[in-house]
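Student: Please help interpret what follows.
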Amino acid sequence: MAKMYYEQDCNLNNLSGKTIAIVGYGSQGHAHALNLRDSGCNVIVGLRQGGKSWPVAEKDGFTVMTVPEATKAADIIMILINDESQAAMYKKDIEPNLTAGKAIAFAHGFNIRYKQIVPPADVDVFMAAPKGPGHTVRSQYVAGKGVPCLVAVEQNATGKAYDIALAYIAGIGGARAGILETTMNEETETDLFGEQTVLCGGVVDLMRCGFETLVEAGYAPENAYFECIHEMKLIIDLINKGGVAAMNYSISDTAEYGEYVSGPRVLPYEQTKANMKAVLADIQDGTFAERWLNENKTGREFFNAQRAALAKHPMEIVGAELREKMLWKNDSDLDSASN
């Protein structure tokens, strides 16, 4: 059983007297910075000069610096920009300004796992990875709760990296929910696998296929959207609360019977598992990482084409129209998370 940590295992005093630089002020960046400040930590924000996030962070009351300046000023540097942008920024702006005893932190192990970033031996390297989007990290903290987090220490140069990592996660609220100990390799591989086969790739394709099947059979697109897409959240909320058993307890016996007889027809178990193993192999041997990094070096032609095609899909168009008519439409603004 993996080791778990909670608030009693974390000491925020391990961050006393330290300056934390949050590099990036997007979904995760704004949440980490605000939560840490509200926990009594000294936080600065490191950004690209002239970037759109600079005035946003200043408006939120932070001292904003360029990334080289923030690296020099901070004891702990948390890198929260996109995976594909981290290595170039690290080599240009962070690495030349590191000194012994500082700590470099990540919320995802991608660049460490695939050796895009190789920190010097005299700094701590740890991961503090909330298992939820930044807006949820913030809203849960404000509500007095927390998002579960993963912790990993890749390099313990000072001998205090675990203490600092646990204190950092407590500062963003993760210890209120629970902290699972892992490694950066394991987090990276399982995270990419889960996203690609189930959470994003798998779920989106499943919903799209269901929507198209009903519409092609002559059913109203609005009904298809509600049955195959909108209700996904309701089902996942039940599973999140009490596992599949909680879902089955809450749905009708008819629905549960359909789960048993039709689920395997839609996703033939052995073939689906073989396909998933192939995806995992690409993640483990670096094939996926190489493809993604190359995609970014060559203008993102495939990525942008897929994004554009999805935006034009009827399930997205119908969904947008329906959400605009519903009372819960105001809950959909991800960029208005509470400060």
Remarks:
- Strands lie at 4-5, 19-23, 42-47, 63-66, 76-79, 103-106, 124-130, 149-155, 179-181.
- The longest strand covers residues 124-130.
- Residues 221-250 form the longest helix (30 residues).
